[in-house]
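Continuing the series of single-chain predictions for the mutant panel. This is the parent chain; the variants come on the following pages.
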Amino acid sequence: MELIMRSNIFFNLIRSLFLLLTIYSATGFTQGTNSISGFIFGPDRKPVPQMFVELQDDLYRTISRVKTEGSGKFSFYRLPTGRYNIRVRTIGTDFEEKTVEVEIVNISQGSGSAISGNNFQQDIQLRKKASGTEMPRTVSKPGVIFAQEIPPQAKVAYEQGIAAADRGNAADAVKDLEKAIEIFPKYFDAHQRLGEEYVRLKRFNEAYEAARKGTEIYPKGFENWYTAGYSAYYLKEYAVAVTALERAILINPDSINGQFMLGLSLKQAGKYREAEKALVKGRDFAGGNVPEIHWHLALLYTNNLKNYPAAIVELNNFLKVRPDYEEAEKVRGLIERLKVKVKN
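Parent structure:
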C-alpha cells in the first residue's frame, strides 16, 4: 500500500523504514527446512484430538492448517526462518482459543532465545471457556448452529482440496474446492476455504467473490467477512473493505486480525480517528505483542493525526517487541526527530 509522503528528509525516512518493514514481512516465507510440532492438552493435561491448529505468519495470515492426531499432536514442516503464530481454533468446543508466538532464526544470528535445530517443540495447554463466551460456528458439523447436508461427491472434492491446501499446494486446492462448489453451489465451507486459498495465490478478485458468496449462504461466519475485507483492501476498494471488516468484528470483536485490517482500511479511506480506535483495539487485544500494529499506529500518528508524542510511544513499543530489528538505529533516530518536533 503506497503512502503519500512529504518531500522533506523526515518523511522520506518514515517511508523508507515502512518499505523495509514490508519487505521483511513479505520475504519471510521462502522454502525452509525447519519444523514445528507439539501437543494440544486440556486443563487436565489430557490430549485433545481432532482440534484445528493453524500456522500463521507475523501478520496473522494463515499459512497452513492441520488437525491434531489422537494423541493431540500437530506438526508443520518445511518452514524458513521467521516469526510465526500457532493458533488453536476452538470454535464449537468448551475450550478458549489460544495463540502462541514462535520465532525461528538461524543459529548464526546468535540469539539466546533462537530456535536453532530442525524441529521446535511447542506444546499448548488450553483452558475451559467461561460461561457465555461461545461464538457461532462457521463449519458444518453435527450439533452446530450452521449445518448442511453435503452431497458425497462434493464432500470428497472438498476434503481433497483441504488435503492439498495443508500440503501447501494452493493451486490444486483451488481446483478441488471449485469442483466441490460446482457440484454443490451453496457449499459454505468450500466457499470459505476457497477464498482463503485465492488469497494465498494473490487472486484477490476471486477471493473476494468466493468470500462474498459465503456470506450470502451464512452471514454469521467471521472468516468470509474477514477474507472479503482483506481482499477488498488489496484491491484498493477501501470503502468495501471497511464495510466487510466491520461486519467481521461484529461477529468476533476480539479478533486481532479484524481490528488490524479494519484500522488499515479506515486509514486508507481517510477516516483517521476511526482507524486509530481499531488499531488501538487490535494492539490491546494482542497484549502489545504485534510489532506491525505499533508501526502502523506510529505512521498514523505521525503522518495523519500529527500526534508526535503518541508516535514516539508506539515507536518505542515497536522496538521493545522487535529489539532485533535490523533498522533499529534508524527508528531511534526517527524518535529523536519527533522529540524535536514536540519541543518546537
